[in-house]
């Protein structure tokens, strides 16, 4: 360790560098200690003894020394980050949930019982009957603007099975010709 390490840890004195998250000194294990499989509890005891007896660290506050203090500092930093980011995440989840609900609301409801199936079947039949009745009356779901362009009432070869539609267009064409006279 450098001379004046205690002051540098606290961000004061010559050669110190400001670190926005702060700094904590720890005592790393030597390779021999790793090879000897020294336990972490024993290493914590050695670390505490090192900082308590080393003159360079005698006047340094406890929160700057040791792996236990480093863990506390990291937990505090993590909690601060979670507190600052969590509201945004919650808002994004709520927004995604609402979008998903909107998409699901466009789908038909689930058929879970025999009664639900009966109701759904009756609704399908009712819709089919309504569409057939419309077609019988000549009410087709077609783009009339597109279909009426170039309609020739005398060219019956191009007429298809939509007789009611063609009769309606024929009447409209004759009506237009009469108004032009």
UniProtKB/TrEMBL annotation:
Q: Which Pfam families match?
A: Dynamin_M
Which part of the chain is the Dynamin stalk domain? 16-155
Q: Which InterPro entries match?
A: Dynamin (IPR022812), Dynamin_stalk (IPR000375), P-loop_NTPase (IPR027417)
Say which domain of life the source belongs to. Eukaryota
Gene Ontology cellular component? cytoplasm; membrane; microtubule
Task: Name a GO molecular-function annotation.
Answer: microtubule binding
Q: Which residues form a coiled coil?
A: none
Gene3D superfamilies cross-referenced by the UniProt entry? P-loop containing nucleotide triphosphate hydrolases
**What PANTHER family has UniProt attached to this entry?**
DYNAMIN (PTHR11566), DYNAMIN-RELATED PROTEIN 4C (PTHR11566:SF173)
Q: What is this protein called?
A: Dynamin stalk domain-containing protein
Which source organism does the UniProt entry give? Answer: Adineta ricciae (Rotifer)
